[in-house]
Amino acid sequence: MLENEDFNGFGFTDSMLDAIESMGFKKPSPIQVQAIPLVMQGKDMIACAQTGTGKTGAFLLPMLSTILEMPESPGIKALVVVPTRELALQIDQQLEAMAYFTNISSTAIYGGGDGSGFDQQKKALTTGVDVVIATPGKLLSHLNLGYVDTTNLKFLVLDEADRMLDMGFIDDIVRINKFLPAVKQNLMFSATMAPNIRKLAKTILKDPAEISLSIAKPAAGITQQAYLVQEEEKIALLRSIIDNNAAFTRIVVFASTKAVVKYISFRLQSEKYPAKSIHSDKEQAERETILAEFKQGKLKILIGTDVISRGIDVENINLVVNYNVPDDAADYVHRVGRTARAETKGMAITFINDRERRRFSRIEELIEKTVDKMPLPEGFKAGPEYTPEALKAEQKMKHEKGGDKGKRHGGGPKRTGEGGHKKKSHHKGKSGHKPGGAAKPQT
Ligand code: AMP
Questions:
Q1: Helices 357-367 and 329-336 sit at what angle, rounded to 10 degrees?
Q2: Which residue among 26, 133, 187, 443 is least enclosed by CB atoms within 10 Å?
Q3: 82-96, 192-206, 270-284, 395-409: segment of lowest average pLDDT
């Protein structure tokens, strides 16, 4: 295995190295160290990795570099199939930054919308876009109409394959694959290696290399608990936990959005709880003062979004409350990891409303632990039922009924690659976004 201290040893084109530098990536993340050489060698690969590990770069960087070295040819060169519109857009944005100094063009194709959106997508697919990032149902509609040129396709990437299977996309994926050349490089990413994932891998991948980068599990010293609770009673539950546990002297409350952070902070402060929040509307100096007060033990309750889950290094936090279930397991582990540092004991409590149940059951799958569900204090309304298997089946049914319809349509291509892509080119000042420097901190 390569000992990559930086990105120079992978054999990337200069234009890719320029983009990596502009994005502020100093060294490859662990998954990138493992995956990039395999992708550059042309191997099929199955990788077990979660969002937040740099997995998108692990396939996009070598894929783009390889496309740049290919002789010019018409049609799509790479197809990335993803479960949701949000992920399609997110990957397209990363691709735009990574392909900034090249002529590689891309488009995101996803479900829903009206006829004009479909026509726009059709135009993108027929005017020579290099990389397509798509949700399965909508892509299949286009493929079935016969105008998508996949004869020169070299890469198929299935991202978040486990989620696609959960959503009932298996048949669509197999059908999509039938439209593609038999000889190509297939890459599959999944947060778990469940038996149905292995089965799909067998159908599509050829003699794949396998890499696994499982997330760190929460430390053993942390007691994890959860409450199934109605959304409108979460504040009352939070107050009840704080009031009834004097031993919790340093508490961090995580919420998923700035608006919720402000709401919790307003509700606690109006009842005179020693609570303050940190969010992006506050000046840096104010945020630092609040953090310092918290560190010194002058402030008991700190409220924020995941932004504080990654950076804060405060000793003796004895309670972490997830007011919302985090989006993915990596965020959960980060949040929960703020307590019980350095072998101390700590408690992490998650509030789950009815719409957050499936997300929490996915987290339990990933951390391979069933978190204790606590009874609500007296006087609370009954919380939602929690039966992970039923939730999974329900989600699958919903998606099978609706496919990926009901979401907004994708846009057209950003650069339709008029001149084809130039190798090792430095097209500074091209249209499109500059490579963003705002990389998320690594896990
Ligand atoms: P992902 O797991 O692909 O969703 O990536 C998570 C975040 O990490 C994204 O914001 C990337 O821009 C960023 N990222 C990916 N690779 C690196 C790297 N080698 N160094 C720093 N940030 C990175």
A1: 80
A2: 26
A3: 395-409
The ligand 1 site (C-beta within 6 Å) comprises: 25, 28-29, 32, 51-57, 94, 439-440, 442
The overall average pLDDT reported for the chain is 84
Distance between CA 255 and CA 306 in Å, rounded? 8
Ligand 1, residues 31, 56, 215: which to mutate, most atoms within 8 A of Cβ? 56
Tell me how far the alpha carbon of residue 103 lies from the centroid of ligand 1, in angstroms. 22
- For residue 346, report the distance from its CA to the centre of ligand 1, in Å: 29
Question: Which helix (H) or strand (E) is 286 found in, with range?
Answer: helix 284-295
User: For the chain, how far is it from start to end, CA to CA, in angstroms?
Assistant: 21
413: nearest Cα among 128, 159, 134 = 128
Q: What is the pLDDT of residue 225?
A: 97
Tell me how far the alpha carbon of residue 20 lies from the centroid of ligand 1, in angstroms.
Answer: 11
- The residue among 183, 210, 186 whose CA lies nearest residue 198 is 210
- Residue 92's contacts (CB-CB under 8 Å, 6 or more residues apart) are 106, 107, 108, 133
State how far the Cα of 286 lies from the Cα of 423, in Å rounded to an integer: 48
Rounded (10°) CA dihedral 306, 312, 315, 318 = -10
